[in-house]
Amino acid sequence: MMRRAILQAHQLLTGRKILHRFDELMQTQWLSWDELYALQQERLYRLVDYAYRYVPYYQRVFREIDFHPLDLRRDPANFYRLPLLTKEEIRANWDQFLTTEPQVRRQMVSRSTSGSTGEPFVFLVDHQHRDYTTADYMRHLTWCGWQIGTPYTYMAGQKLDASLKERLRNSLMNFTLNFSEVDAYDLVDESLDSLVRQLRRRGRGILGGFPSALYVLARFVQESGVERPDLLAVRCGGEVLFPKQRRLIEETFGCRVFNWYGSYETGGGAACECEAHTGLHVSMEKCLLEILRQGRPVEGEESGEVVVTNLINFDFPFIRYRLKDEARWLVRECPCGRQSPMIAPVTGRTVELFRTVDGRVVVSDINEFLFEAEGVRQFQIVQKALDLIVVRIVRDERFDPASLDKITGIIQQVMGRQTQVKFEFPDEIPAGRTGKQKYSYSELEGSQPWE
Ligand SMILES: [Zn+2]
Q1: 302 lies in a domain?
Q2: For 367-419, what is each residue's pLDDT tens digit?
Q3: What CATH number does residue 380 fall under?
Q4: How many angstroms separate the alpha carbon of residue 275 from the centre of ligand 1?
Q5: For 233, phi and psi rounded to 5 degrees?
Q6: Consecutive H or E run containing 42
Q7: Distance, CA 25 to ligand 1 centroid (Å)?
Q8: How far apart are the CA of 45 and the centre of ligand 1, in A?
């Protein structure tokens, strides 16, 4: 209760509404599917109507396809007439995505993600978005066993763009919520050891971060024999979580892993794993998530491309935005009682697709194999040419050389016999600047940069 009072004081001083939003989300999570759907449709209408009034890009697009926001009121299926949006499209028309309301423009804060090309993708978020994102983050933490005041430590990637003002704001927020941020991009034994000590000092709490960083930490705890910290839960997302990572993290820390899926553009977690661990519930209050195959919603549990509409960022709207990930619905009821739909843990990005000599595009399960293989500490698969794949493996003494033939076999089975597979054995594969591990990417021209 003490922490809640501090949080209330923080809200009064800063004018933010995180607690309101948090209380609201704690209620709406128990709404029936019908009620959630109605709420989502109402927010979608308001977003599209706002874009129609104030956002030049959408004014133009709606005119081109002869669309009016009221069309959604008449038939929700009119939503599918709106074109899909890509990051490249936003980059090319950046200024036109920004609201023309001057008083709102002044309050907006920038967010950016970085690509392997090093060129950051910048967009703006408004007050409402920031409050809602934090509140939804807190809601997911409650699914992990958190209450206001429970220590939460998260391993964060490098902030590429944060201004001093933004950093101060974050520090204040972290202090208020009893959150603590540690770097995840320089994971040497020394920093891991100091992180474990810090976690023990902070007492029973929750740890968050990218799966690859948490996996490195878990392995460090196992191998160094340091006393493990007392964790209620581990919350991870931001990149694919492999079953082997989940197993090692849960076994090492003696607690459950809670996966989330989403990105900066979706306001953090678009879908989050609940305490029943049967799938990831979509945050319907915050986003509209679609899974499409050839532009159409998939049937049942068929997998497809993830497309998200962010329902809370009116002033720089992302409507039907392609996240370039592959996912599938789980058509079942969750024992937790929440009725929001669930997706299966996301296992791959569409940008990890490789192209073959005979013109096919393939997604390989080689990542999964490498992750399970004995003695593989890290790996990376790079398509260098149509007929050349380079596999980088950081091995230890348990690595079985026979695995190399197996890997070549799997790749050639998918890519074709003419594909050459070369191996490299570096001592380390550094994470990208954001702290994320690149498991695979293509260097072919025209391929999307991995992000
Ligand atoms: Zn559930």
Answers
A1: no
A2: 667 777 788 888 888 888 888 999 999 998 889 888 898 888 888 887 888 88
A3: 3.30.300.30
A4: 6
A5: -170, 165
A6: helix 33-54
A7: 15
A8: 27
How buried is residue 9: exposed, middle or buried, by Cβ count under 10 Å (0-12/13-18/19+)? exposed
Q: What are the structure tokens assigned to 423, written together?
A: 């191996």
- Centre of ligand 1 to C-alpha 343, Å, is 11
287-293/303-310 β-pairing: antiparallel
Q: How far is the CA of 32 from the centre of ligand 1 (A)?
A: 13
pLDDT value at residue 10: 84
Task: Please name the residue that has the structure tokens 């079953």.
Answer: 243
- Return d(Cα 158, Cα 162) in angstroms, integer: 10
Tally of domains in the chain: 1
Give domain status of residue 275, yes or no: no
Compute how many other C-beta atoms are within 10 angstroms of the C-beta atom of residue 324: 19
Which domain covers residue 370, as residue numbers? 352-442
Express each pLDDT in 167-219 by its tens digit. 788 888 888 889 998 877 667 788 899 999 999 999 999 999 988 889 889 99
The one-letter code for the residue type at 93 is: N
Measured from the Cβ of residue 405, the count of other Cβ atoms closer than 10 Å reads: 10
How many Å lie between the centroid of ligand 1 and the Cα of residue 336? 4
Residue 161 pLDDT greater than 70, yes or no = no
Distance from the alpha carbon of residue 256 to the mean position of ligand 1, in angstroms: 14
Is 392 domain-assigned?
A: yes
Q: Mind listing the pLDDT tens digit for each residue in 324-340?
A: 888 999 999 999 999 99
Strands 420-424 and 440-442: unpaired
Name the more confident of 258 and 238.
258
| Ligand 1 geometric centre to CA of 53 (Å) | 38
Whether 220 is in a domain gets the answer no
Among 243, 264, 246, residue whose Cα is nearest residue 255: 246
Prediction pTM value: 0.83
Residue 279 CA, ligand 1 centroid: distance in Å: 7
Query: Separation of 337 CA from ligand 1 center, angstroms?
Result: 6
Q: Which of 45-54, 81-90, 349-358, 367-376 has the lowest mean pLDDT?
A: 349-358
Spacing, Cα 340 to ligand 1 middle (Å)? 8
For residue 143, the CA-to-ligand 1 centroid distance in Å is 9
Task: Write out the H or E segment, with its range, that includes residue 404.
Answer: helix 402-415
Dist. CA 241 → ligand 1 center (Å) = 18
